[in-house]
Design goal:
Low-confidence stretches: 618-640
Helix content: 40-55%
Structural class: alpha+beta
Oligomer: single chain
Largest sheet: 4 strands, antiparallel
Distance between the termini: 98 Å
CATH class of the largest domain: Mainly Alpha
Mean pLDDT: 84
Number of domains: 4
Strand content: 5-15%
């Protein structure tokens, strides 16, 4: 007003933008301009299409056209560039903006941009076999730079997880053009070409199976520790509130103690309410106790709402005061419901508010009310759709610099991580356990089905379009398999003698263990069955059930040489009976040595699988009547 004249009502959005982008503007000036913009916007001075805030103006530029999305990748072939733009424009009405942006990246960058980079001059969708094969090979892997312990950086190739999605997008691109060429040949006909990707290459069965196993393992690790996390979140909130209350109760400039910690309050405060929010601890460090209490509260509220509802994080941030509605049952009873705005599947749904959830929502509403008792209506920027939503009384909001703002998704995640760090919960390997907001959704569905909720009801509550998606979220073993296995075991027990299932006495158990201890020999182990005695009078070298260890071959060779010396001595002395007995032992020792050598040769020799003979082959023929017969190689009909 001092520079250009005029009054307050003459200020337009451009005036504030010019002041915000001035080269001499500092942080304090920027904060003041943004606050002034918020006040003037609340007065209704700006047009309806004015942005909700001047914060993050560079990151919140709104939606751009398909042509602008494609031109980010600077394609050299103008006809193909125009084709991709026309294709995205044709599909735009049926796609959300987030997927449209991703699709433009897959087609313009990962597909055609890669082809132009490695095959200069390419200008046709009709790709040679070697060109498409090379592109698929490059798409399957990515180069990652990793830093070693010695500080050196190496480049390694890793499989690319998003390969199937890109292949499906390119295959759909070719299929759509082929279909549209039949309907509008003058527009799409010249672009129809053979599809370089077959259906089998787009299979994601193995990828889905691995993802399912990984998700189930995450859920099984986090479900048992959820009560501990809830207790820690509640404790952190109470402790943070106790410290902040102690700060507010202490005189300015004084020293106070809260929960065993000593703090010094500031000598003065510039806040309108006169209550400080920061203090110095015993080490002289500044502690923002107000921010600590706010983050602890929203971490507690996030955990409680997510675990009681199973909603997505974007749905959590869009909860408003209008989301809480009531419904009258036919019996006349009124029940509270939570209305979830359409998000991923564009399906609106209603959730029953439990007493525990009602307490959390009541605490949130009480916290965000303004001086008039109403929840402020604030605009919210949708990062996925790149649009500003109409002002709503959002529940997840807080005041920053006299301005009510939505709580950012990153702030919610950071608050959750702070609670996890304070809990000290670790996984099986001893590493800190990490919770993502989506983990609470999987835990909610798993716990609900585990406690008897029908899967089709869980599907409605979760807002899934397919029940298979809901079952994919569950990390439980199917009850049918468990019951069938238990019935099988019961039937098998009924068929066996009852005395086999009697309780074993301690003496019998010790005898059973001692049997295996007595089987250990110098040359290996005795293979006789439990409950049987040695029938060879412990002549182990002669015994056919002796299991000789490969490592004991030198000992067995030594026994053989000793037997030969004893036989020679007995022959010199004329002990013919001794010669006969020792000769039997010598023959048994030599046989066992030959068995060991044969085992060693088999381990070292390659395994020959053999070649099938023609007589082992069979062919399947189908006659004109539709019947099938299996004919062997000799021409004999085996079956029909």
């Amino acid at each position: 007003m001092a520079a250009f004249g005029g009054k307050v009502q003459d200020i337009v959005v451009g005036d504030l933008l010019m002041r915000l982008q001035a080269p001499n503007s500092d942080t304090r000036t920027t904060r003041g301009v943004r606050l002034a913009y918020a006040w003037l916007r609340d007065r209704g001075q700006f047009p309806a299409d004015a942005p909700g805030t001047l914060r993050h103006t560079k990151n919140r530029s709104g939606q751009v056209s398909p042509a602008e999305l494609v031109d980010r990748y600077h394609l050299r072939c103008q006809p193909i560039r125009d084709l991709i733009v026309d294709y995205l424009t044709e599909r735009q009405p049926t796609l959300d903006y987030n997927y449209l942006k991703r699709l433009s990246s897959m087609l313009a960058s990962q597909f055609w941009g890669d082809l132009e980079q490695h095959h200069p001059g390419i200008n046709s969708l009709h790709l040679p076999t070697e060109t498409s094969a090379a592109w698929k090979a490059r798409l399957a892997t990515k180069t990652v730079r990793k830093k070693q312990r010695d500080g050196t950086i190496i480049e390694i190739s890793e499989p690319r997880s998003g390969t199937p999605a890109v292949k499906m997008a390119v295959r759909a691109f070719y299929l759509d053009i082929a279909q549209w060429a039949l309907e509008e040949p003058e527009r799409w006909g010249r672009w129809a070409a053979p599809i370089p990707i077959n259906e089998a290459e787009c299979s994601v069965k193995k990828l889905v199976s691995r993802q399912k196993s990984k998700s189930d393992q995450r859920t099984r690790e986090r479900l048992p520790v959820l009560p501990a996390l809830v207790r820690v979140a509640d404790r952190r909130l109470k402790e943070a509130k106790a410290r902040l209350d102690a700060l507010h109760a202490a005189p300015l400039g004084s020293t106070f103690t809260a929960l065993g910690e000593t703090f010094t309050s500031p000598k003065a405060t510039s806040r309108a309410d006169g209550q400080p929010v920061a203090a110095r601890d015993a080490r002289g460090r500044r502690r923002d106790l107000g921010t600590e209490e706010k983050r602890a509260f929203w971490a507690w509220a996030t955990i409680e709402i997510l675990r009681h509802t199973g909603i997505r994080i974007e749905e959590l941030r869009e909860l408003s005061h209008h989301s809480i509605i009531s419904y009258r049952l036919p019996s006349g009873e009124i029940v509270p419901l939570l209305q979830i705005a359409p998000s991923k599947t564009d399906q609106e749904r209603l959730l029953l508010i439990s007493p525990e959830l009602a307490d959390v929502l009541s605490a949130v509403i009480s916290r965000v009310r303004d001086a008039t008792g109403a929840v402020p209506a604030i605009p919210n920027y949708d990062q996925h759709e790149r649009i500003w939503n109409a002002p709503m009384p959002l529940l997840f909001q807080w005041t920053v610099g006299h301005e009510s703002r939505p709580i950012a998704e990153m702030t919610i995640r950071e608050s959750l991580n702070e609670t996890l760090e304070a809990s000290g919960i670790t996984d099986n390997s001893g590493e800190p356990l990490v919770f993502q907001p989506h983990d609470f959704r999987r835990i909610f569905i798993t716990d609900a089905i585990l406690n008897g909720l029908p899967p089709h009801i869980a599907q409605v509550i979760a807002g899934h379009g397919n029940i298979n998606t809901t079952m994919g979220y569950t990390a439980i073993y199917t009850a049918e398999a468990i019951e069938a296995h238990r019935a099988f075991i019961a039937r098998r027990r009924n068929l066996r003698p009852a005395e086999e299932y009697r309780a074993v006495t301690p003496d019998e158990w010790q005898e059973f263990l001692a049997h295996f201890e007595r089987r250990k020999l110098a040359l290996g182990e005795c293979g006789r069955a439990y409950g049987t005695d040695c029938i060879h009078e412990h002549a182990c070298v002669r015994c056919p059930v002796l299991i000789v260890d490969l490592h004991e071959k030198p000992r067995l060779v030594e026994i053989r040489e000793n037997l030969k010396d004893r036989i020679a001595e007995a022959e010199r002395e004329g002990w013919l009976g001794e010669v006969e007995g020792l000769s039997v032992s010598l023959a048994a020792a030599e046989e066992k040595i030959s068995q060991l050598e044969s085992r060693e040769e088999k381990k070292k020799a390659p395994v020959f699988l053999g070649i099938p003979h023609l007589g082992e082959l069979a062919v399947r023929t189908v006659d004109a009547r539709g019947g099938a017969a299996v004919i062997s190689a000799e021409g004999n009909e085996a079956s029909a």
